[in-house]
Amino acid sequence: MKKVLLLNLILYLCMSGTVLAQSLIKGSIKNSTTNEAAYAISIRVKNGTDGTYSDDRGRFQLKTSKSLPITLLISSIGYEPQEFIVESFSTPLELLLKPAQILGQEVVVSASRTVQNKLSSPVTIEQISAKDVVNSPQINYMDMMQGLKGVDVTVSSLGFTSVTTRGFNTSGNTNFTQIVDGMDNQAPGLNFPLGSAIGLTQLDVDNIELLSGASSALYGSRGLNGTMVMTGKDPFKYQGVSVLITQGVNHINNKKKNDPVSPSPYYDWTIRFAKKINDKIAFKINTQYTQAKDWVANDASNKNGPGTSLTDPNYNGVNFYGGSTSTDISPFLQAALAGNPDLAPIIEPLLNKPNYVARTGYPEYGYLDNTAKLFKINGEFRYKISQKIEAIASGTFGTGNIVYTNDTRYQLKGFKVGQYRLELKSDNWFVRTYTTQENSGRTLVAGPTAQYINESWKTSYDGEAGGWYPEYTYQLINSLAGGTALNDAHLAARAFADQGRAELGTPLFNRLRDSITSTPISEGGTLFLDRSKLYNTEAQYNFSNQIKFMTVIAGVNWRLYNLNSKNTLFPDKDKPINVNEYSAYVQMAKKVAEERLNIAASFRYDKNTLFSSPKVTSRASLVFEAMNQNFIRFSYQNAYSFPSNIQALQNTLNGYNSYSSGGSSLLLNDNYQFDKYPPYVYESVLKFQETGDPGVLKKFQYDDIKPQSVNAFELGYAALLGNRFMIDILGYFSTWKNFIGYANVANTPGTDDVNALKDHSTYIQYNIAFNGGETVNTYGYAASLSVDMGYNFLGKINYYSDYLKNKNDSQINNFNTPNYHINMEFGNSGFGKKQVWSFNTSLRYKPGYHYVVSGGLASGEVPSSAVIDAQISYKLIKARSGIRLGATNITNKYYSTGIANPRIGAVYYVTYAYNIL
């Protein structure tokens, strides 16, 4: 009997109607100008709670218990709001909506965790809507970020784009937060955002909001450089089957562009299916697959000096791997001289200075697989428990092969990341729990793998049977004795020592590479075994119904990082390391002065179990409406960042006798024995090797790494003028304390003899995260103008600049940005008969600037770039389809977004779109 009652209850809840929903209003909505179906239009009963949305055909059904006549409120951004009186339930409604300007009507949520007009936001915020994605000339929404005001982007590969603001630009920025449908999109172990790897698919973007600068008071630790909030489409609102197929070609004119890849196809296929089963149940499924020949990083600049591979025996190219193994061959020369004093005229002139020689490196192309593949799938189920309470379950899974830049280049091969969520929400509250789980797959670490390959086919020096360096020295002396010039003698010596080398693509090379990359780092190989997980539970409540005189929002959050790398990324040999974070926040806002002045303040408490002291941060803001649609804003934010798991605990091999390290004393003393064998600044070690004078050595002063903080001030003005011009002007100034950067150091575990620093094979090099003692200042300004020119023409331009002062020259600070950026956009969303034609163009200009990659990978000048993207589209209204022809970097002038990153050419493409909302 109980089972029957339970079954009846379930069937009752899942019924398409309820006892109260006795009347049904049916209808359809169209665009009055084009006669197209108007989708995702809000239809609400005036002075009631009943409501729905039009589907992908413009149709709607609204159940209500109210009696006639009923007034419906019809609204959507991009259309003029309308009220319609229903006088009969039997006659289907046919409504026409008049398009309206969008400029100045945008609403945002992330700026204060409440819905508000973008113009009145208390902080700088940029926005991308679903319609922006549809009209964009860029193939992927992540590429659109490059044109936003205040945004810097580093492109490691076709599938890995890192976004940040306020100048701190690098691949994998741990001080930038990316949130997707309420979930922190960071990698659990590495702590940097995963870009689009498990983000929204191209067809599921409802809106993207990007906050520039500090946002810790609202979004917690690591929001120092900004936060990006991405929201997927609600299946109750956006329904139907949508398909987006992009076919393109890249690597055009490859020979003229010094591009080793032949012209290659580019594929991007996306499908979205969403269905509202009834008023209570809806679901969606998204999938996207991208494949292309990736851009190639082929910077041949010498990290060890001005020479080339033909002129410098110690050549170590930026994107040539294996050359980091470098040895002074003077001891071998001295041994040869001792064995044969007659060689003195040849050898003694060489001993006046060090004679460093690097092993022969492998270029990236042919070494790393440049076939980029990304696959992701997302599913979401929604159930409305009542009109005000909704339950959501979702899951996203991503896998593929892409390349990422950090202290070396990493080929993420077969990586897998999953993110799974359960949420219960209402208008005033939510409770959300989710987990992120990663599997690093067969990641290939370019630098150390190449060094190990070199050591596998021929050791550098084995003490008895010789080795690569003894052979090199032997041939160098023979060539010099035969009258060969010094430079040619070095080339001959390299050719001799490289006999039997494992050349790219040969069975020997493939066997050695596969063996090394399948052996964990902890066992002498280069394989990561990262299986880290993140668990997060949070809740928030809006007390607006209880506290009438002001807006009060409060929330709590708990997070667990379960670090599990089997001693390949963290010191977790015995068991996983658990790091807990606890936080609570409150935000208060009040409108005064006839509601023209909005005063808001936020406070947040955070505790991380790696650090003894909690952190309290705050934000205060004033927004004053000087005139109608004219807002002056001022904000102060005290933000902080606990060191990320990587900055605190990383223990990763990044080269032969070289490690990337966190700044925790647990590592520095226990693992690296800095307390017994002091570290020296690596630049001073190089000087010591050159001069032989121990007096040039400089000890590295270190301490247990601490949280960093910033006090940020911003003044801005935003306005809509004459309903045609929207402007936004701002300036900011920030002061950083305990600024976290990186330093290259070296020590010699097991000996106090500083002379051991002369031999690369006896000392160990580290790239260490540490706090700088100086107070660092950053400042900048920005301005943007959007112009509605009428007839669906829209133009945009923005200019922004960021600066860093008082930097610690011993720190690698990742402040990689030019003096200024200029971005422009011009397009039309519908022209011609029935407005079936549209186009959009964008221009991004950056002057040249200096770029430093943390971990000692490289530094240098990034050339200036002017990138033009363009597309033109045509709608097939009856077929509910569209064709788009376009190109990114249409001039095919190759450019790069950072040292050691790939050179990016054009992608020429054609896109077919079906039922795109």
Describe this protein's structure:
The chain has a 22-stranded antiparallel barrel. Strands 10-15-16-13-14 form a five-stranded mixed sheet. It contains 13 helices and 50 strands. The protein is mainly β. Helix 7 (446-457) crosses helix 10 and helix 8 runs antiparallel to helix 9 (486-497). The protein has a domain at 21-97: Immunoglobulin-like (Sandwich), CATH 2.60.40.1120.
Sequence-ordered SSE layout with sheet pairings:
Layout: H1 2-14, E1 23-31, E2 42-45, E3 51-53, E4 59-64, E5 70-75, E6 82-86, E7 93-97, E8 107-108, E9 116-117, E10 125-129, H2 130-135, H3 141-144, E11 151-157, E12 160-165, E13 177-180, E14 183-184, E15 205-212, H4 216-219, E16 226-232, E17 240-250, E18 264-276, E19 281-293, E20 320-321, E21 326-328, H5 330-339, H6 344-347, E22 356-358, E23 362-363, E24 371-384, E25 390-405, E26 409-425, E27 429-439, E28 444-445, H7 446-457, H8 468-481, H9 486-497, H10 507-517, E29 533-542, E30 551-563, E31 577-592, E32 597-608, E33 615-627, E34 630-641, H11 645-649, E35 651-655, E36 658-661, H12 665-671, E37 680-681, H13 682-691, E38 708-721, E39 725-737, E40 740-747, E41 764-771, E42 776-790, E43 793-805, E44 821-831, E45 837-846, E46 849-853, E47 858-862, E48 865-876, E49 881-888, E50 907-914
